Amino acid sequence: MGLRQHNPTTPGARGRVSPTFSELTKGNQPEKSLTEKTSRSGGRNNNGRITSRFRGGGHKRRFRMIDFKRNKIGVPALVASVEYDPNRTARIALLHYEDGEKRYILAPDGMKVGDKISSSRNADIKPGNNLPLRFIPLGTTIHAIELKINGGAQLCRSAGVGAQLMAKEGDWGQVRLPSGEVRLVHLDCRSTIGQVGNGEHASVHVGKAGRTRWLGRRPHNRGVTMNPVDHPMGGGEGRSSGGRHPCSPWGQLSKGLKTRENQRTDRMIVKRRGKKS
Asked: For position 27, which CATH number holds?
């Protein structure tokens, strides 16, 4: 993938940095059997109440069904195309298996059309192959990591991210995540070799507000610009931060407050993110 800077022929093009999409297969259409219709909620729950503010609109999309389980054990596959997915930051790759089945997976960095990949404990350690952690050498960069055996990949699925297998002890392995957190993962959980592709996604600059609206994100109104009746940080003569820590309209602190409450999996975290020792 490469990035392209635009000539300032319009205000929206000034400062815009967009991907070149050079890694995508040209003239390719999504596999129809692997796409399905999606409906947009506009940030509303099943009662019609807004639970996620500043969401709505956006371009119509079809969802691509991604194979996060990689349970075609021992069946080789050929990479038929690398495609754009409007529902995620990563690129996706269409696999044609030898038995005739087609599936989408996340495209790792360096994957090209014509590559042969497989999902097996005996697979080579190369990008795209899927193995249980038990059979992956220490220090290998991995992504699409399962947290439950045969439960499907949950970790490291965004563009450009990759984890590292640090150690193995008994039935558990230590995986260092992109955040710096070191976590225990069962060695029978599967993961994919390599780093997720489209690593330059973080350097893309949209250039204008309209491109953000196309993604379904509406303008965000800051609390300090509101009135006291609407937000705890609102009001004041002139611009002020309200004399209190940043919070939501309902008083939930937004900086520094630890919100993790899953005590069941606390024992799986060897080292917290952000800790230097």
From this structure: 2.40.50.140
Kindly provide the residue ranges of all beta strands, DSSP E only, lying in the chain, ordered along the sequence: 3-5, 17-19, 35-37, 62-64, 77-83, 92-97, 102-106, 116-117, 130-132, 141-143, 145-146, 153-155, 163-169, 172-176, 182-186, 190-193, 269-271
What predicted TM-score, i.e. pTM, was given to this entire model?
Answer: 0.91
Tell me if 183 is assigned to some domain: yes
Q: Which tokens is 161 given?
A: 């991210």
Alpha helix (H) residue ranges in the chain: 209-214
Distance CA 200, CA 76 (A): 30
Domain count, the chain: 1
Q: 273 in a domain, yes or no?
A: no
Confidence check: pLDDT of 275 > 80: no
Beta bridge partners of 92: 83, 106
Residue with tokens 């495609």: 83
If 0-12 CB within 10 Å is exposed, 13-18 middle and 19+ buried, where does residue 242 land? middle
Distance (Å, whole) CA 46 – CA 53: 15
Task: Give the pLDDT of residue 183.
Answer: 96
Euclidean distance between CA atoms 124 and 193, whole angstroms:
9
Backbone angles phi, psi at 136, to 5 degrees: -105, 130
Whole-number Å distance between alpha carbons of 138 and 115: 24
> Which has more pLDDT, 107 or 244?
107
Using the 8-state DSSP alphabet, how is residue 171 labeled?
A: T
138 lies in some domain:
yes
Q: Which of 79, 36, 41 is nearest to 61 (CA)?
A: 36
